């Protein structure tokens, strides 16, 4: 089965760039299109127990967008090197697996490629597994890249 629309979440980590490389190689083989997304929290201070000013929010959004754009540019450079049709998009909302699953469904994605840090034991218990959460949130096939 050839996957024609592949979604890759990019967070700027090396493991997310590894996922981009793998997805780009798949896309090249299947003549597929890639959608690279970076998630930004719409309001990271929602339900916070402290007061924050609008200047703090503005600074957060400016820096978050700059970081997302830089990560997506680096990821796009990887796909451009393989001459793969690629779209990049910043997605605002909740930074969680459900947002990835919804974005994949809205864009008629037939494969999600996601990097996983491969945490084990106490780290996994505390930090969780984002890739595992994506698997639980979608019926779309998910390819987990660990290196």
UniProtKB/TrEMBL annotation:
Coiled coil: none annotated. It is found in: Cytoplasm. It holds the Pfam family Usp. Keywords: Cytoplasm. CDD domains: USP-like. Residues 4-146 form the UspA domain. One of its GO terms (cellular component) is cytoplasm. Gene3D superfamilies: HUPs. Belongs to the universal stress protein A family. This is Universal stress protein. It comes from Acinetobacter wanghuae.
